[in-house]
């Protein structure tokens, strides 16, 4: 039996993969977009399988009222929309507060609609601070909340991103407490893997670390980088699973398959792409026994599927980037 589903943020890297997964699983998808241009872009990718509706400003009062009246039988809402601005000069008023207000406005309207399930695309940034997110250690769990407070979020753009993820999710759970809808929070770590639209220019922001690796030459020094990561296709799959699987209800679900480490990713690329073997720097991979893993047993019991390896995510994205040249 198919479901009809609203989704925001469908034009983005994760959003496109989620829409594809939902459609492949037999669902009817209504993507809420900000402009006619965004709508046409999605329609070109998914044709008649997708309906698009233009809402220029989700922060506006009653922005969703007409949609809920037009589609009274839609009972699931996936929110992947977020405000990200790494060049902001006013982090409080251009990043943190707008994200909090966005989810507040969306969920407050949903409370008076027929929606009975909300899936929030959050982030592991809501569970940890940058020190643990960008590190080889895995000393955290899927029950944790980021230690960042509001003032810490105003230090720089990276801290504002992390803080906004925490405060946005906290606001969502606060509203859901006395609402009739069930809330599910999907919290992926750094998202890697191929673009849905291989012809799209550039690379999504989270995958730019791979694009930067490909620019290195034999004698270049290797930038230090390590972060928990997960494949975008698995993020999409788990959003779809959450619609029908009751185990997701009322839970925060951490998605992290391992650590994306520059040295390790370089060696994966060199081993799988002969044209890059002699171009990229030589280095030793970080041994598996040095790499920490988060306590995510609760999340694994909920989503139940085997996640793709980071090696697979890297290989599939590099294949796209090489073909595009």
UniProtKB/TrEMBL annotation:
Organism ancestry: Eukaryota, Fungi, Dikarya, Ascomycota, Saccharomycotina
Segments forming a coiled coil: none
Annotated NAD-dependent epimerase/dehydratase domain residues: 5-248
SUPFAM superfamilies: NAD(P)-binding Rossmann-fold domains
Record protein name field: NAD-dependent epimerase/dehydratase domain-containing protein
Molecular function terms from GO: oxidoreductase activity, acting on the CH-OH group of donors, NAD or NADP as acceptor
Alphabetical list of PANTHER family matching this protein: NAD DEPENDENT EPIMERASE/DEHYDRATASE (PTHR10366), STEROL-4-ALPHA-CARBOXYLATE 3-DEHYDROGENASE, DECARBOXYLATING (PTHR10366:SF564)
Keywords assigned: Oxidoreductase
Similarity section: Belongs to the NAD(P)-dependent epimerase/dehydratase family. Dihydroflavonol-4-reductase subfamily.
Family annotation (InterPro entries): Epimerase_deHydtase, NAD(P)-bd_dom_sf, NAD(P)_dehydrat-like
């Amino acid at each position: 039996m198919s479901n009809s589903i609203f989704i925001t943020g469908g034009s983005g890297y994760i959003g496109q993969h989620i829409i594809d997964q939902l459609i492949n699983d037999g669902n009817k998808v209504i993507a809420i977009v900000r402009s006619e241009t965004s709508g046409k872009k999605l329609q070109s990718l998914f044709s008649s399988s997708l309906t698009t509706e233009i809402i220029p400003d989700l922060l506006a009062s009653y922005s969703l009222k007409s949609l809920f009246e037009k589609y009274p039988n839609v009972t699931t809402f996936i929110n992947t929309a977020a405000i990200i601005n790494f060049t902001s000069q006013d982090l409080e008023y251009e990043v943190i507060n707008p994200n909090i207000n966005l989810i507040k406005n969306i969920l407050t309207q949903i409370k008076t609609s027929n929606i009975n399930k909300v899936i929030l695309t959050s982030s592991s940034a809501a569970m940890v601070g940058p020190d643990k997110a960008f590190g080889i250690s895995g000393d955290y769990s899927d029950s944790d909340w980021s230690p960042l407070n509001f003032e810490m979020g105003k230090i720089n753009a990276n801290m504002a991103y992390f803080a906004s993820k925490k405060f946005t999710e906290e606001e969502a759970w606060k509203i859901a407490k006395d609402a009739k809808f069930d809330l599910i929070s999907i919290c992926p770590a750094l998202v890697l893997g191929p673009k849905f639209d291989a012809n799209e220019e550039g690379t999504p922001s989270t995958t730019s670390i791979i694009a930067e690796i490909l620019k290195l030459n034999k004698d270049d020094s290797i930038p230090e980088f390590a972060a928990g990561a997960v494949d975008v296709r698995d993020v999409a799959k788990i959003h779809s699973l959450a619609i029908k699987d009751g185990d997701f209800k009322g839970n925060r679900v951490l998605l992290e398959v391992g650590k994306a480490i520059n040295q390790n990713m370089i060696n994966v690329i060199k081993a799988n792409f002969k044209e890059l073997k002699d171009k990229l720097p030589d280095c030793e991979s970080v041994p598996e026994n040095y790499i920490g893993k988060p306590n995510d047993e609760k999340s694994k019991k909920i989503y139940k599927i085997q996640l793709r390896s980071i090696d697979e995510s890297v290989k599939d994205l590099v294949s796209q980037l090489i073909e595009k040249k």
